[in-house]
Amino acid sequence: MKGYVGMKMRESMALVAILGLAVTGCDYIVPPIDFGTATPALQSEGWAGIVTNVTEAGGALHVDLAIVNNTHDWSAMDVATSTAKVIDAAGKSSDCSKVFVGTSVFVSDAGWYLPPGFVMKGYTGGTAAKPETRPLFVECTGVAKAAGQRLEVGYSYTTGPFNYYVPSHRFRDTLKLDLSKVASDTKYPIATDVAELVVSKPDAVIVGINKCTVQLTGVKRTDTGFEFSWESTNPTEYPAYVHIGEPPVIGADGILYGFYQSPHLAMAPITPAKDKATWTTTVAAPADVSGFYILLPVETQQQKYFVDHVVDITDK
Questions:
Q1: Rounded CA gap, 105 and 191, in Å?
Q2: How far apart are CA 130 and CA 226, in angstroms?
């Protein structure tokens, strides 16, 4: 019975798609939706944490952190589900009242994904209208700084491509950190050169949905950050969309710039049959920071299924 219901749902969705095309008169291709299981993760080592500073002020212990993606895959960590406690030399634990650890706050079961081997120390929070740069930190009220303290941060994360139609499998783990080991020489944004990390050149042609390709054709520094020019090419006989969202950037300061929204929500022009389309995206980032990479989600294989790519713009 369960299999029959699933089959009927797929048939209904297909019928809705066909009727939608008939009503609107739009004949661009919409590949069938795969309601299968989420993409399995590679052998994962989870995430690692780096203590970058430990201070005490106003009766609270404050710990600044950086996080490293050791999952061997693209991965997103949810800021909203992070928890923490500090453990003293005698083994007494105290819960921490403020915990901001992750790549972004998840929306619709996803957030910004960080490439394997990358390291970051902050993200863009706030709202779309008023974005704010938020460093990763933990603050424990009523805890004094002392020798022998340890910090444990509980976190959840997802890996692999983002499929809007299939709930992402959440992994859960704990960062266990010695607060006496403070690193002051962390290099951002690449911590380790891992085999799974593929970095594309700025002019790379990236294949997306419906055999269409996406290419970065221009990078402009503005007063507020970057303006990126994009071009899609459609070799097929039918018009098609290729969504890439509003891609974020990460540079030498370790901050992931760009307020998160699901990439399928951003406007994308229709690419005519056997033709091209052009558009621009923007992202706010400081003018005094360099060494940037674009983290580019490209709609691939099917509607609202996104595969991420790293584009090197370190010379911009």
A1: 23
A2: 17
Q: What is the DSSP track for the chain? A: -HHHHHHHHHHHHHHHHHHHHHHH------PPP--SPPPPP-S---EEEEEEEEEEETTEEEEEEEEEE-SSS-EEEBGGG-EEEEE-TTS-EEE-SEEE-SSB--BTTB---B-TTBEESEEEEE-SSSEEEEE-EEEEET----TT-EEEEEEEEEES-EETTSPPPPEEEEEEEETT---S---SSB----TT--EE-TT-EEE-GGG-EEEEEEEEE-SSEEEEEEEEEE-SSS-EE----S--EE-TT-EEES----GGGS---EE-TTEEEEEEEEEE--TT---EEEEEEEE-SSTTEEEEEEEEETT-
Q: Could you state, in chain order, the average pLDDT of each consecutive group of 10 residues for the chain (316 residues)?
A: 36 39 40 44 74 96 98 96 97 97 90 97 93 97 97 96 92 97 96 93 97 98 97 97 97 97 92 98 97 98 96 95
> Cis omega before residue 189 (within 30°)?
yes
Q: Which residues pair with 227 in a beta bridge?
A: 220, 282
Euclidean distance between CA atoms 199 and 225, whole angstroms:
22
Predicted TM-score (pTM) of the model is 0.86
Two structure tokens written together for 64: 């600044």
Q: How far apart are CA 27 and CA 138, in angstroms?
A: 51
Looking at residue 38, its pLDDT comes to 41
Question: What is the pLDDT at residue 25?
Answer: 35
Instruction: For residue 176, give the H/E element and its range.
Output: strand 171-178
**Residue 23 is encoded by which pair of tokens?**
């009503």
What CATH number labels 199-313?
A: 2.60.40.1240
Q: Which residues are 151's β-sheet partners?
A: 86, 177
pLDDT value of residue 107: 87
How is domain 47-178 classified at the architecture level of CATH? Sandwich (2.60)
